[in-house]
TrEMBL record:
Record keywords: DNA-binding, Transcription, Transcription regulation
SMART domains per UniProt: HTH_ARSR
Protein name (database record): ArsR/SmtB family transcription factor
InterPro entries xrefs: HTH_ArsR_DNA-bd_dom, HTH_MetalResp_TranReg, WH-like_DNA-bd_sf, WH_DNA-bd_sf
């Protein structure tokens, strides 16, 4: 795992350290999948607080940490804000089509759930 270079830098796995089973584990949780869907829809980095989850702040922090440590997202500080972005380039290079397939399936499931 890439170590933090300053007190405000966060550790992320290098591309070659990202493991499929860890990515799938991260994406298997409905709240984390919701975060990934929102980041994909945003198409840019967003703050943690802009992704509204129906959980406590500490639980939300946990979900973002799991996504970061699995290599699904990158988190950086900009001033006091923690910015989040998908590591789409890394995921697409390692697992071509996986992220698009997961996002499409999640969209279909969401549409199915709302039509009930």
């Amino acid at each position: 795992m890439t170590t933090a270079t300053s007190p405000r830098a966060l550790a992320h796995p290098a591309r070659e350290e990202i493991r499929l089973e860890e990515v799938l584990h991260a994406l298997a949780d409905p709240m984390r999948l919701r975060v990934v869907r929102e980041l994909a829809a945003a198409g840019a980095e967003v703050t943690c607080s802009s992704v509204e989850l129906p959980v406590t702040k500490s639980t939300s922090t946990h979900h973002f940490r799991v996504l970061r440590e699995s290599g699904v997202i990158r988190q950086t500080y900009q001033g006091t804000a923690k910015m989040n972005g998908l590591r789409r380039d890394d995921l697409d290079a390692l697992f071509p089509g996986l992220l698009d397939a997961v996002l499409a399936a999640a969209g279909h499931q969401s549409a199915r759930d709302t039509s009930r």
